[in-house]
Design goal:
CATH superfamily of the largest domain: HUPs
CATH class of the largest domain: Alpha Beta
CATH architecture of the largest domain: 3-Layer(aba) Sandwich
Number of helices: 9
Order of helices and strands: EEHEHHEHHEHEEEHHEEEEEEH
Shape: elongated
Low-confidence stretches: none
Amino acid sequence: MKIYRNISEIVSIPKAVVTVGTFDGLHIGHQKVIGELVNTARSMGGQSVVLTFFPHPRKVLQPDFNLKVIISRKEKTKLFEKLGVDNLVCIEFTKDFALTSSEEFVKKYLVDPIKPVKVIIGYDHHFGKDRKGNLEFLREMGAKYNFEVEKIEMQDIEKIAVSSSKIREVISRGDMKTATKFLGYNFSISGEVVKGNQLGRTIGFPTANVKPDEPDKIIPEYGVYAVLFEWKGKLYKGMSNIGIRPTLDVNVLTIEAHIFDFDQDIYGEEVSIYFLEHIRPEKKFRDLELLRRRLIIDRLKVKGILGEDIE
């Protein structure tokens, strides 16, 4: 997959089939659009192009709104590649960019640099200043600049329309099973393993403390989770604790994972924690011994959930 950090880097993309969006979460609704994009491009002997934005437009237009993103830029890029996208164009979203009119956007960011033969969008897509660009407008532009337009209908699960806001809601309350259903994959937090206070190893539960690579990443409800831990492309079973470690009176948010049957020095390494199920809320224990006993119970429960094989 080719990645363009600036629209001016594009030289030529043959028979480009394009979609545009922020794609926060890259959930199953987004994946339906991307799947159609990739399949259409391949059937035409062309290339698929995703034009996306960073940071999230809402963070620029509504800075007082504390928006938390579902997926980091690195995670999103990795998933686009996994979905088979040929070209990823990343546009920095600024206040000046937000003033771009709908027609100017089509001309400057689609027609001139990419020359699409087809544009595929989701059912509720809007773009340009004041979000005036919609399906009808885009079809008018297609007639003017000679490209087709296709709309992908809304994706529903159990009669609930999937949206990034609904996914944020279920992640915030620790409902990882529903999050997985809506996302089409396990929600993850990726980042660097950093030094902690190393108290876990003194009670038989050493942990990897992960600093998220996206400062504005949404954090699930505090507590213990059954997780898969990825390091250097390999998955390991484990359990993770998210919270402020009240037993230790730390009061600083930590995201740590105890990895089963693992004894490697991974400080400074890039890893990912995939959250499968919330086991229990965070709790303050009277002392470290009571915490240790509870962690033994947690580990048994998590091992029961994860089973013998990693899917």
